[in-house]
Write a structure and sequence with these properties.
6 helices; alpha/beta; globular; two-stranded antiparallel sheet; five-stranded parallel β-sheet; Rossmann fold
Length: 193
């Protein structure tokens, strides 16, 4: 029985150490500053809501990303914008289509927007965007908790001139998203090569 307790204590300790390490890296990503004069602004998708293609709209997490991007686009009109995200089985339209529509409704030049609408993961977002065009100096726009993993995956895919623009997460979803990201980051570090 004592051996089982010791093993349990060790496992709990390892779990706490793992979670603290991942959380440290995630928080470091939230402090990221975007590069000046980027060639490309890569906006990563998130959940889309609605009941049909005609009334699809961005979730609160996606809207935070898009609003952050809009401010940056105003200061960097030279950047090509790539909106990334396919259509999940529970989504009425692709994330890329909804994102492009939102940006256009907020006076972003539609000729500057490219859509990557086939991806189902962060790694696919980046990989598929790289196939669309030469990204050059790239700023990834995503949620603050998602910056570190996104940049890690981009570097592993060969995109080295990269920085992040973190969209601050709404406090009502922060704990849930950070908890999920702790697991996703560990998975990416081990399996996403």
């Amino acid at each position: 029985m004592k051996k089982m307790m010791k093993l349990l204590v060790v496992l709990i300790g390892v779990g706490i150490l793992y979670a603290a390490s991942m959380l440290f890296l995630i928080v470091q990503g939230t402090k990221e500053a975007p590069a000046d004069n980027p060639d490309t602004l890569l906006i990563l998708g998130a959940q889309v809501r609605g009941t049909s293609e005609g009334n699809a709209y961005p979730s609160s997490v996606l809207k935070e990303r898009l609003n952050e991007a809009i401010h940056f686009i105003e200061e960097n009109p030279q950047a090509t914008i790539i909106v990334c995200g396919g259509q999940g089985k529970d989504e009425p339209d692709s994330e890329a289509n909804v994102m492009a529509n939102y940006l256009i409704q907020h006076h972003v030049d539609p000729t500057k927007i490219l859509k990557e609408d086939l991806s189902t993961s962060t790694k696919e977002n980046i990989s598929n965007a790289m196939e669309k065009t030469n990204l050059g100096k790239t700023v990834i726009v995503t949620s603050d908790f998602h910056i570190y993993r996104s940049k890690l995956l981009a570097r592993r895919l060969g995109l080295n001139d990269i920085s992040g623009l973190p969209a601050q997460s709404n406090t009502s979803v922060t704990a849930n998203m950070y908890s999920r990201e702790i697991l996703a980051l560990g998975f990416a570090m081990i399996f996403s090569w």
